[in-house]
Amino acid sequence: MTQRFMAPGPKKPPKRSLYQCAHAKVTTDGKRISCDKGHLFPRPGPAAAPKTLDIRSLIKGKPMELTICQSCRDYDEMGPPVPPGERGYIGAKDWNPLWEIN
Q1: CA atoms within 13 A on the CB side of 71
Q2: Phi, psi of 59 (to 5 degrees)
Q3: Which of 2, 5, 25, 39 is the Cys-Cys partner for 35 at CB 3.0 to 4.6 Å?
């Protein structure tokens, strides 16, 4: 019996991330992330209205690869993907900056 090897398929492009989008901005109060093109980010929860994102996801270094961004016509990549180890605030594991947000 002969084994057949399939050629690898095309690589999936990397997901678009708010870490890379030039239009993702921190609001003036420093507590939320918004899109300067006016796109609304979905908020978790059954009755939550789309608006802005809480900055805590950024502070914690969570992936910021939102579904809405994957097909956004205004997505403007400003650099290569940010490696997971470089996301979030420096020393966020040792220091809790959330006291400034509450």
Answers
A1: 2
A2: -60, -40
A3: 39
* Single-letter residue type at 10: P
Q: What type of residue sits at position 42?
A: P
Give pTM, 2 decimals: 0.68
Helix (H, G, I), strand (E, B) or coil at 15: coil
Provide the b/e sequence for 22-39 (b: ≥16 CB within 10 Å): ebbeeeeeeebbbbeeeb
E strand or H helix at 53: strand 53-54
- Which residue in this structure is represented by tokens 């050629």? 7
> 């057949």: which residue's tokens?
4
**Which residues are paired to 32 by β-bridges?**
54
Q: How would you classify residue 44: left for phi > 0, otherwise alpha for psi between -120 and 50, otherwise beta? A: beta
For 37-79, what is each residue's pLDDT tens digit? 999 887 665 555 568 888 888 888 888 899 999 999 999 999 8
